[in-house]
Amino acid sequence: MSPSVPGPTAPRILLLGGTAESARKAAECGLCVVNVDKPVLFEPAARKHCAQTHLIDYQDIGLVTTLARALHQHAPFTRVLSQTEAGPLVAGHLTTVLGIAGNGVGVARVLHDKLALRDLLNTRGLGSVAARRGTSCQALRDFVAHHGGAVVKPTKGSGSLAVRKVRSAGEATEAWDWLASYGVRHFMVEELLAGPELSVETFSVDGRHTVLAITGKDNGDGVVALGHVVPAELNQEEASAVAALTCRMLDAVGLVEGPAHTEVILTADGPRVVESHNRCAGGHINELVAMVHGVDLERLTYRLAGPDPVTVPEPAADGAAAVRFLTPPAGRVESVEGVDEARAAAGVVRVEVKVEPGQDVRPLHWSEDRSGVVVVRAENSAAAARRARQVAESIEIRTEPSEQEPATTMGELLAAVDEVLDPFAQDPYTHGPSAQDSLAQQEGPHACAPLSSTPPATYG
């Protein structure tokens, strides 16, 4: 056993998609980590922080359930956790199957299904937003004509994948054709909300929710985030309204514990929830929260699996921090300049560039298409956002446009990161309840439907 791995008597967790960093943090919290990750995504450096590593597709519900049951019978887990975008639904399912503490499949399903969440919020009167399941081009045109604009998006997914704004009825046919060519089969239509875009970073213990930060988002004219800043520039009344709605939403969903990342738009009629996820935020937001408020939400999550009660610290703001993403024009990279100067600039914490000459930059379809990031600190939010933008603009990534952009489907983009939107739909042995039905079920070891008995593969 590696010196960095806690002993066999330490609390034991099943970690889905554990990176080297997340496995290290869990081990440093005194946990015995059993990591299950997809072979193509596995980071070998994670192994030294784990008691066991199993390389399988954890979105294969039958396979991962068989494995989890066998491991739990041998040495029980205290939690099943995941910090990935694909993992929380599977973690909720396994939590219910194993009958252990945490957010079960009912919570995970309703957060994973955006239309189910919208229906729940509208039913509970928590910031009504008109929405319906996508059915036909004419229905989309009528919806846009009635509401003055719409957003079409898959009912499941993250990273702004396959999300599109439709600002007029005249754009409906084009949007409908795009959905078909992009391979989007199950989608929803909801009214286009106007106002600042935010996200709320919370942590819950025993059903009590604490708002640790409200993040400002800059999406430009599109749907993919170009930058984030913590804290968002809000007055006290606005911040209180956003926080109150978020906590009421988490109550309605039934979130028991752990982090949540909730996207909100502050409209003229008050805040409206866009969607929510029971995991830490992506896009370096957790890093910004730690820099400004001194709270690492990921470490706090792992402490839930330990023997001691978890107390959420009061967030005390220290200045501001921001990220700005690098989004060069699509094409073949010819050169990258200004990186060293950017790293040496005042206020810069980190600069990451993901591309180099000879590589291709894809059009900005979703967050995975961003080419790098600049992280900065400053005395206030406006200064941090401005500085991050300035430094990002000083980095020049020259690209040569391709003669013709190949058609890209949502399935191809997901395949590139080895992810499926609905793992339950992939498993013919699993007939789990709908998200709406899950809310009415009693969670426990018998709440899950029959699963595959396919034996696990060989693990490394």
Short description:
It contains 15 helices and 19 strands. With 460 residues, it is of the alpha+beta class. The protein has an eight-stranded antiparallel β-sheet with strand order 13-12-9-10-11-14-18-16, with helices on both faces.
Task: Set down the secondary structure blueprint.
Blueprint: E1 12-16, H1 20-28, E2 32-37, E3 52-55, H2 61-74, E4 79-82, H3 87-98, H4 105-112, H5 114-124, E5 131-133, H6 137-147, E6 150-154, E7 164-166, H7 172-182, E8 187-191, E9 197-205, E10 208-218, E11 227-230, H8 236-253, E12 258-267, E13 270-277, H9 285-293, H10 297-303, E14 320-326, E15 331-337, H11 339-344, E16 348-353, E17 360-361, E18 372-378, H12 381-394, E19 396-400, H13 410-416, H14 423-426, H15 435-440
Parallel strand pairs: 1-2, 1-4, 2-3
Antiparallel strand pairs: 5-8, 6-7, 6-8, 9-10, 9-12, 10-11, 11-14, 12-13, 14-18, 15-17, 15-19, 16-18
GO molecular function: ATP binding; ligase activity; metal ion binding
Region (Disordered): 422-460
Pfam families: ATP-grasp_4 (PF13535), LAL_C2 (PF18603)
